[in-house]
Structures are given as structure tokens and as C-alpha cells.
Amino acid sequence: MRKKGLFSLLALFFAFALIAAACGSDDDGGSDESSGDSTTTTAASDDEGGDAAQNTGDGTFTVGTLLPETGSLAFLGPPEFAGVDLAVADINEAGGVNGEEIPDAIQGDSGDTSTDIASQTADRLLSENADLIVGAASSGVSLTVIDKITGAGVIQFSPANTAPDFTDYDDNGLYFRTAPSDVLQGQLLGELIAGDGNATLGILALDDPYGTGLADTVTQSFTDSGGEIVGGEAVIYDPNATNFDAEVQQIADESPDAVLVIGFDESARILTSMIEKGIGPSDIPVYGTDG
Hints:
Elements: H1 2-22, E1 63-66, H2 77-93, H3 117-127, E2 132-135, H4 139-151, E3 155-158, E4 175-177, H5 182-195, E5 200-206, H6 209-224, E6 228-229, E7 235-237, H7 245-252, E8 258-262, H8 267-276, E9 286-287
Parallel strand pairs: 1-2, 2-3, 3-4, 5-6, 5-7, 5-8, 8-9
Helix pairs in contact: 1-2, 3-4, 5-6
């Protein structure tokens, strides 16, 4: 699976590189009605939702990264940065783009949805004339910058976004991702949990587009399979909370046959609370997700 994913990423990098390096004309960058000002980019989208300044082709394929160095997904950052560096190295080893090597990727932090780091990083990368921005890892973070990036005529390429919101997003054809939508994961997970013989399910999900979107899809799939979500809906929690005892107790009071936890690294603390309240993995089936 890793090799297949890498080959797919490299193939897309090659395609984007050839397009970006060859283009410097007014129609580089989708359907925006920019007049193709020759000024080298500045970046930000208008607060009222207007047009963003358009990046212009300069003959060099520039890659920027918008990946988590800090925030709730920082533990995912090192392999994601390494993946970008490997792709750049492999392309250069194969001859680069139009005979020219790609410069080292410009590294940038995405932070998380509790900060404005991603927006500031996107501004910096666009000001440095990035043709491709890899990131963000978090669907919630990507949603905060996708208009700014694609509105500037720049490709945004996420290695991890799964929120269904992106499937039909108005992105001028410039947003891509390698991970499948949570519609797929949610449907299969709901069917799996029901197929394991669980008639009732408690869901704990973090409050962001990933968590709530996946919870909705699992709920639909599980109920379509004949199951029931205890309390009628998922219990949504703040991932930045100091503890999750109240939310876990809410699930425990319903005595579900199984529990699904949709979270990131805070899931460890949630599981600790679940064990203390008698609904841990040694008591009832507990399911997790890709997060």
C-alpha cells in the first residue's frame, strides 16, 4: 500500500510539475477571472470572498508544505514531511522537470484549527510563488485555507484529508487528495460493527469536520444495517478539553453493546476514562478509526 501510494503521488507530482513549469500565461490556474497580472504573487484571499491574487509561472516548479509541526496532529508531521522530500528527490533523480531539478520543498507548519498558523503559512508559501502546496493533514485546517490557495491558482494536495466536504468543493479543479473520503470508511465501519453482532452503538467523536462527518456516515450505515445509536446521535467532544469524563459517562449510562471512538491522540485519554467507567476494550467491543 505504501509503495502504491508513493507511485500515485509521484505521478501526480510529475503531471503538476510539467503543467506549472510550462505555464506563465494568463490562463494558468483554473477558472478565476484574473487578468494575469505579471506581479509575482502575494497571497491572500479577500475577506469578502473576492478574487485572490494569482500566482504566476516562473519556469521553476516550487513545492511548499503545509503540514503539522505543531498542534494536535504534530505526531503525524515527520513522516509526511519526509514523504514530500522523498518525492522531490525521486523526481530529481529521474531528471527533474523539463531538465531542471526541483528545489528543496519550502517547509511550513499547518498548526491546527485552534490557531491561525495555517493561514499565515499559506500566505508565506504563496508569496514565495509556490506552484504546489502539500497539506494540510487535517480536513478542518484545509477548509480554512483551500479558498486562499486554489483562489490564487495554486494546487493544494493533501496526503490525509478525508472529510466528504472536499468531494464537490468549488476548488477550480486545483484541490487533490490521496486518502479516500470518509463516506467509504464510514459505510464499511458501520457495516462491520453491525456485522459483529452489536445491536446498539455509542459514538464519541471530536468536534471538527473529520469527526462529525465520519460520525454521521457511520450512524447512517449502522442504522441502515439494523442497529441503533444510543442517545440517538454521536456524543461530540472538544479535543482540547482537559478531560472527557462527562462525555464518556454519557455513553456509559446508555450501556451500549459497543463504542466507536473517532479521535486523534486524545483518544488515549478517552480510552483511559472508558476503562475506569467499565466500557473499555476488556468490557465491550471498542472500535477506532484511521485517525
